[in-house]
Specification:
By secondary structure, this protein is an alpha+beta fold. The chain has a single domain, classed as Cytochrome p450. The chain contains 17 helices and twelve strands. A hairpin with a 4-residue loop joins strand 7 and strand 8. The longest helix has 34 residues.
Length: 521
């Protein structure tokens, strides 16, 4: 099996240390059909049964929040600057001898009123965050703070709604309608947009000796989404080619408090993490995006009205789902896939090229859903990229009632109202679940390996479950998987192999191609 070592700190060392140290104990799942069977009311109308007593030793949740104001700022500085994200969690887990502990999560003062969370780092405790009978998902999409609704037209967008709220079901139905009605356009529009991207990369590589993936991918991703989902070419509208740059600035206004731009600490921390960037600074550009979506999505807005959602509110939700969820995901995850595949080397490239081309040839020379089902290695590579570096690393949920949660070693009592936080990259690299968990293993999910897909967590739920009206799985989750598969398929229809240089960016990895070996067939 092809394997590459992950750059993150090894959770394996942590799990080993948990075995060695004594504890202070106290007694006392391809594109699926969207299902609409479980409505929001069905998930909340019946009282949930009391949790069964745990068979594991009970333990008080270790850790503390420090002094008010001072503790959260100290943790924030450790998270972003003094330790870095991964070491922030690793060091505390080792200190407390536990993958469940208390800490403060950024941003803290003065943006978040209560940064106190219970951290979950292992694959056993993490899934409680997906159980909407146990945790509330209201206004926790970005964590312990919520961006100003002035950035979304004055509305709380679907991502911030709990399934118990009636509007959640209406808006999710709208997104299901959009995706279903435009599904036949996805494959051809992806081919068109990313063929243009490949031509751009080749021209830049020939001229400069290297080619940056970021800007070209941003333009291709936005063009693809606009054409596939709304039948509109942005270049033919007043928006022109400005969509990606506007979206990137808009994302900064929302995610700035929990991200770093690599600026000096004394400058970045007060600018991004202590005070909110005033929303009025992006108002004019956001209006340009809104106008584009309003003019392009008439058929979807008509359906929204039929569902009981005003056109304006629906448009802001369509914009968010397309620009934040979909475009943001492609901006972060597409470089991630190519980074890991690039690092794996020419042997994996040759296997992927052979598999992709054979499957396409046997299906009439066209990329289809059927042909992609005949590419087990390609599918495994995409799932492995989701596992080793999930595009959504942070998950939150507030306990609806007193809970007992379990790690591999202990059980813990969580009080009603406490905020649970899961760091997904550690949960998906749990060595008690995955062999060689810190390595990129290209064929990990081939054959019997498919049984491990229930532990691939990246979209408010496991890969083996799909979005419903009653859960918080992203409505377009299966489409994101499809887009990612198409990237690998189209890439290896065009090229035999490639070399990349990998760097860091504020949102994921940055890629620079240093060679592209065109397909030899």
């Amino acid at each position: 099996m092809t394997s590459i070592t992950s750059a993150s700190l090894p959770l394996l060392q942590l799990q080993s240390s948990l075995k060695r140290k004594p504890c202070n104990l106290k007694s006392s799942t391809t594109m699926r059909r969207f299902t609409t069977k479980a409505s929001a009311s069905e998930t909340t109308s019946a009282a949930a049964p009391a949790p069964e007593p745990s068979k594991l030793p009970m333990r008080k949740i270790p850790g503390d929040y420090g002094l008010p104001f001072i503790g959260p700022i100290k943790d924030r500085l450790d998270f972003f600057y003094n330790q870095g994200r991964d070491n922030f969690f690793q060091s505390r887990a080792q200190k407390y001898n536990s993958t469940v502990f208390r800490a403060n999560m950024p941003p803290g003062p003065f943006i978040a009123s209560n940064p106190n969370v219970i951290v979950l780092l292992d694959a056993k405790s993490f899934p409680v965050l997906f159980d909407v009978s146990k945790v509330e998902k209201r206004d926790v999409f970005t964590g312990t703070f919520m961006p100003s609704t002035q950035l979304t037209g004055g509305y709380r967008i679907l991502s911030y709604l709990d399934p118990s709220e009636p509007r959640h079901e209406q808006l999710k139905r709208l997104l299901f309608f959009l995706l279903k009605s435009r599904s036949s356009h996805v494959i051809p529009e992806f081919h068109s947009s990313y063929t243009t991207l490949f031509e751009t990369l080749e021209n830049e590589l020939a001229k400069e000796g290297k080619a940056s993936f970021q800007t070209a991918n941003d333009q291709a991703a936005f063009n693809f989404l606009a054409r596939a989902l709304y039948g509109t070419n942005p270049s033919d509208t007043n928006l022109g080619r400005d969509g990606p740059s506007i979206i990137q600035t808009w994302l900064l206004f929302q995610l700035g408090p929990i991200m770093t731009l690599g600026l000096p600490k004394f400058l970045e921390d007060p600018t991004l993490h202590t005070f909110r960037i005033p929303p009025f600074l992006i108002k004019k550009d956001y209006k340009r995006l809104y106008d584009f979506f309003y003019e392009s999505s008439g058929f979807a807005l008509d359906e929204a009205v039929r569902l009981g959602v005003p056109r304006e509110e629906a448009c802001h939700n369509l914009l968010f789902a397309t620009c934040f969820n979909s475009f943001g995901g492609m901006k972060i995850f597409f470089p991630t896939i190519l980074k890991w595949v690039g690092r794996a080397g020419v042997k994996l490239h040759a296997r992927l090229a052979e598999e992709v081309r054979a499957a396409v040839k046997s299906n009439g020379g066209k990329v289809t859903m059927a042909s992609m089902e005949e590419m087990p290695l390609m599918k495994s590579v995409v799932y492995e990229a989701f596992r080793i570096e999930p595009p959504v690393p942070l998950q939150y949920g507030r306990a609806k009632k007193e809970l007992v949660i379990e790690s591999h070693e202990n059980a813990f009592v969580v009080k009603e109202g406490e905020m649970l936080f899961g760091f997904q990259p550690f949960a998906t690299k749990d060595p008690k679940i995955f062999e060689n968990a810190e390595e990129f293993v290209a064929d990990r999910f081939v054959g019997e390996g498919e049984k491990l897909l229930k532990h691939v967590l990246w979209s408010n739920g496991p890969e083996t479950e799909g979005p419903t009206l009653g859960n918080k799985q992203c409505a377009g989750k299966d489409f994101v998987v499809l887009f990612s598969r198409l990237l690998v398929v189209e890439f290896f229809l065009h090229y035999d192999s490639f070399d990349v240089q990998v760097g860091n960016s504020s949102l994921g990895s940055s890629l620079t191609f240093t060679s592209l070996k065109k397909a030899s067939y």
